Amino acid sequence: MELSKSNQKNTVSHKTRLSMSLFINYFIHGMVLVILTQNMISLANSWNTSIAVVSYVISGIGIGRLMAYPVTGILSDKLNRKMFIIIGMLCYFFFLALMPIASNLVLAYGLAILAGIGNSALDAGTYTTLVEINNGSGRATVFIKAFISAGDFLLPLAVFFLSSHKIWFGFSFMIPATIIFINFINILNIKFPKINNKIFQAEIKQSTLSKPRKTIATISLLGYGYTSMALMLVFTQWITLYGKEVLSFSNITAHFLLSLYSLGSITGVLVISFILKHKSLEKPLVVILNLMTLASLVGISMIDNPVIVEILCTLFGFSAAGGVMQTGLTIFMQLFPKHRGLVTGLFYFFGSIASLTIPLITGYLSIRGIGLAFNLNILIASISTILVIILMIAVGDERKHQNVTRTKTQ
Fold it and tell me: Which of 49, 171, 375, 394 has its Cα between 20 and 30 A from that of 329?
């Protein structure tokens, strides 16, 4: 009995260590997301070029994602999950360690593509691992968003500190490179647990939707992969300018709106992860959060009171960036438990398409007005809500269908 309790404690401890190691990778990922934009001027000076060229280099990350997501997704189902996490970490390490000392734009662009590949490898290995070690629950994947938010919150502060003290900008790259290298050594010494085959087989049996329903659900979720990413991209890119130029807020208030979005995101992670203790609430929760997202955007477009807009921006962060995208991916993986890696790759592939197309679309709309560019998000939120409602209808009778199937079997 005592030996059994000891083994159980060791298993829990091992799982916690593995989970924290995976979360640390996404803390670094949060930094990688903003590190080039935060260092644009320093990089332009280092390469003796313009900020516009640096922006072109940044696009390499999106190219790397689009190239890699379909491949890493398929292979992670056939090969070792740990291998893809290691590949992702190595890609991020070389990107961070070499980018500030890159001597030419060709190397810099290659490193940006490498970062995109690293992102896709990490996603393919991490999301699947977290779901599998938690017996099919996607609750742990929601915490990824909290660590991403922490990373992209702290990195700008580090860049500001280095700049104000006239310290070499490259330290903002070298510090996260050091962290991910230490975590790489840590990951190498962690044994990834085997999948519980009984639970895995049960998940496969439970996935009993008819082909038409599953097809509709799949199309809805792929579309949601695009819209859920697009919502965050439009908001983070344009909310500050929208606050200043359309709502006529002060510079401080306009910038504060983005901080409140981050605060709402972190709060959302905590609340959503608590709700997801009950797996049955995943699907209705996605619908409710998308409706909240749509309502908050409509409110921002109609109201110019600073306090109310601040509350609505916090609500948007809570509902659109608090882990609802990760919850959508979990639902997708539940539909195809034998192909979790492939599903992850496809879901984020569509998210990557959003990261490439949305800046182009909003850039064109901004010529006609900042308000038009920002309010594109209302259309996207409407489409997103329709998609998750269709998803809800498609899988809504899943339990009833499972019960009928069990009755026939008995």
Answer: 375
Q: Which amino acid is at 327?
A: T
Q: Which fold has domain 9-195?
A: Growth Hormone; Chain: A; (1.20.1250)
Q: What tokens appear for 188 in the block?
A: 């190498």
Q: Using alpha carbons, select from 230, 225, 193, 190 the residue that is nearest to residue 86.
A: 190
Q: Are 328 and 231 in contact (CB under 8 A)?
A: no
Give the residue from 32, 93, 40, 28 showing the smallest Cα distance to 65: 32
**Contact call for residues 362 and 234 (beta carbons, < 8 A):** yes
Q: Where are the domains of the chain?
A: 9-195, 200-409
Q: Would you tell me how many other CB atoms lie within 10 Å of the CB of residue 99?
A: 24
CB 368 within 8 A of CB 197: no
> Which H helix or E strand runs over 88?
helix 81-98
The 10s digit of each residue's pLDDT in 334-384 is 888 888 889 989 999 999 999 888 888 988 998 899 999 999 999 999 999
Please tell me the distance from the alpha carbon of residue 404 to that of residue 330, in angstroms, as a whole number: 24
Residue-wise pLDDT for 122-146, tens only, equals 999 998 899 888 877 777 888 898 8
Residues 28 and 92 sit within 8 Å (Cβ to Cβ): yes
- How many whole angstroms separate alpha carbon 67 and alpha carbon 72? 9
Distance CA 216, CA 220 (A): 6
pTM equals: 0.82
**Residue 40 CB burial class (10 angstroms; 0-12, 13-18, ≥19):** middle
- Counting Cα atoms < 13 Å in the Cβ hemisphere of 225 gives 22
CATH 3.40.50.200 fits 200-409, yes or no: no
Phi-psi region of 135 (alpha: psi -120 to 50; beta: other; left: phi over 0): left
User: What span, in angstroms and rounded, lies between the C-alpha atoms of 281 and 236?
Assistant: 28
| Distant-in-sequence, close-in-space partners of 61: CB < 8 Å, separation ≥ 6 | 36, 112, 113, 115, 116, 119
In angstroms, the CA 79 to CA 234 distance is 36
Intrachain domains 9-195 and 200-409 with the same fold: yes
